[in-house]
Amino acid sequence: MAQLKLERVYKRYVNSDKSFFKKAKQNDYAVENLSFTCYDGEFVGILGPSGCGKTTTLRMIAGLEEITGGDIYIGETRINNLLPKDRNIGLAFEDYALYPPLTVYENLAFNMRAKNRSDSEIKRAIDYVAPLLKVEELLRMKPPALSGGQKQRVNIARAIVRRPGLLLLDEPLSHLDGKMRQQLRHEIKRMHHEIKCTTIIVTHDQMEAMSLSDRIVIMKDGNLQQMGEPIEVYDNPANEFVAGFIGEPPMNLLSSVISRADGAFLFTFPESELRVEVPKRYYDALSDGQRVTLGVRPVDVVVAKTPTKGSSVPIAIYENLGDERRVSVRVGDSLLNMTTSEDVWYERGEMVQLEFKAEKTHLFDPETGNRIVSRKEGS
Question: Of 239, 272, 291, which residue constitutes the final position of a domain?
Answer without folding.
Answer: 239
